[in-house]
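User: structure tokens for Transporter substrate-binding domain-containing protein, please.
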Amino acid sequence: MLAGLWPLRAAAAGLSSPQLLVYPRHQALSDPQQAYVTALLQRALARSGHAYALRRSELRMVQTRAMQEIATASGSVDVVWAMTSRARETHLLPVRIPIDRGLIGWRVALIQARQPQLLRDVRSIAALARLSAGQMRDWPDCAILQANGLRLDTSSTYEGLFQQLAAGRIDYFPRSVIEAQSELASHAQLPLALDAHLVIRYPAALYFFVGKHRPELARHIEIGLETMLADGSFAQLFQQHFGRLADSLQLPRRHVLELVNPDLPEATPLTRKALWYRPKHH
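Assistant: Done. Predicted tokens:
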């Protein structure tokens, strides 16, 4: 609540009027990350010492389009959250604090409801490679899965992947643990299920990205996030949105298939343990 009042407080304190920041409207009908990410961004900006007001773009856009708009300084989008990759960090300015605590690299599979045991005995990458995975063609996950020798079918539309899975044109759709359950719920009309046996894991990070021409904006977001990490409000918000995930997905009981991520930039803060999620083992 207080975060939302920040522009008013800032104006009252005689600071400049709030600067409008536009984030992209997701292609998904209900983006499972959006409530958390926008709350996090709003609170981080409120702690940055600068006045900003957030607004969603009018147009729906895929990640590549949103990033292009930011890179070319078109003015239609100012900030985006996305999984990092070498290419993305070349064109845009990342705020290197994983807002998902690395959960974007913890993947569980959506499968067809009629094949609940499809992945039960998968214990190796070779076994998984016999099946075909679905992904959006502009997602960095494509390069990661292919680099590990997995078979892929790509789509240019997000909703199309759920249709392809339901129709049996792909065998499984790996989704991050922060997306899988809500995506399953929002596609309840399709004969889909959540695999209970496997978790695919690779080092990955979901960052806020801004244009290279906006280093001050990146700095303000970083200051706000660091403040939230220090005062515990980052962990609190994360817990509130995703805290029950590990329990409901029973991550410690699943077989973990570790993949390499050759596309992970060297500057990723993997050694800063406090930034990354670790499941509690029972």
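User: Anything notable?

Assistant: The mean pLDDT is 90.
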